[in-house]
Write a structure and sequence with these properties.
By secondary structure, the protein is of the alpha/beta class. It has a single domain, classed as Aldolase class I (TIM Barrel, Alpha-Beta Barrel). It is built from 12 helices and 12 strands. It has an 8-stranded parallel β-barrel, surrounded by 7 helices. Strands 4-5 form a two-stranded antiparallel sheet. Helix 3 runs parallel beside helix 5 (79-95). The radius of gyration is 19 Å and the shape is globular. The chain starts with a helix and ends with a helix.
Length: 308
């Protein structure tokens, strides 16, 4: 699956992943109005609105980007109806040829970890048959419980030729409360990065590992260090746009081959029509605003990489 991601980046010229993280407040009124008229102001109605909103964005950007990243919490808040939309969104994006990174941030041990891995990346046995659950291509994983929490995921990834993005240095302001703590004179995130590189050696593609890392765009100097620690790991970079990250902050996340990183933008793309820069599109054309936001992001990143 890492090879599909790399080919997608090379084909589109866009090392970009669109975060499909819907909130009802992002969804234009004409979509919610229609959904509520059919299903009422219910969880089912909310699910229908989210589905139509997601579909519009995916249709508008699928030829521009290689990947999407639905954040499962945004769907779980609507209960079973939300999870149905999550599964439907994953399936639709794969039909469109997109790589799907399930932003699920799971972290547990033993059979629990294995069940998470099977549910999101593998297949479960029911009687004599096997069935895929959500069937994403990659999943985000929290390494705080150590190898006991990661090994079950690696096992499923080997079986399915799928991948992981392991949290190393996250983009949120308080991440340093733990991640920057010194252990034997070195910050914890460096030690986690070293372990990610070791795990990655167990599951290599042609040039990059199937085991990647999450490193926030809001910490570019730390990203530079981690790029050197994890030369064969793809880095998923959140924090672009709405959280303050810009193209110039990203250059150190990439290797000299121009690969090695994929940058996430969520509300900066999916709710672009709400920004002053794209307000002229209007809510009826929210998907066109999202498309333009992707084009602008692609240009910003390309210009930064060309000037490094």
């Amino acid at each position: 699956m890492i090879e599909k991601l790399i080919k997608g980046i090379q084909r589109t010229g866009a090392p970009i992943v669109v975060g499909l993280d819907p909130m009802l407040s992002y969804i234009p009124e004409h979509i919610t109005r229609k959904a509520f008229s059919e299903y009422g102001e219910t969880l089912e109605g909310a699910g229908e609105a989210i589905w139509q909103y997601n579909k519009g964005i995916v249709d508008a950007v699928c030829d521009l980007v290689p990947a999407v990243k639905p954040q499962i919490a945004m769907y779980e808040q609507f209960g079973i109806e939300g999870l149905k939309v999550f599964a439907r969104t994953v399936a639709y994006c794969k039909e469109k040829g997109l790589v799907v990174i399930g932003d699920v941030k799971r972290g547990d041990i033993g059979s629990t970890s294995e069940a998470y891995a099977v549910g999101h990346l593998g297949k479960v046995q029911v009687g004599s048959d096997f069935y895929y659950g959500f069937d994403e291509d990659f999943a985000t994983v929290n390494p705080y419980l150590g190898s006991d929490g990661i090994k079950p995921f690696i096992k499923v990834c080997k079986e399915e030729k799928k991948g992981l993005f392991i949290l190393v240095k996250t983009s949120n302001p308080s991440s340093g409360e733990f991640q920057d703590r010194l252990i034997d004179g070195r910050p914890l995130y460096e030690l986690v990065g070293e372990q990610v590189a070791k795990w990655g050696e167990e599951l290599m593609g042609d040039t990059y590992s199937y085991i990647g890392a999450v490193v926030g765009a809001t910490y570019p100097e730390m990203g530079k260090v981690l790029r050197e620690i994890m030369p064969k790991s793809f880095i998923l970079v959140p924090g672009y746009g709405a959280q303050g990250g810009k193209g110039v902050d990203l250059v150190h996340f990439f290797n000299k081959d121009g690969l090695g990183a994929i940058v996430n933008s969520s509300r900066g793309i999916i709710a672009a029509y709400k920004q002053e820069k794209y307000a002229a599109f209007g809510s009826e054309n929210y998907a066109d605003a999202s498309r333009q936001a992707v084009l602008d992001m692609r240009e910003d990143i390309a210009s930064a990489l060309a000037g490094r």
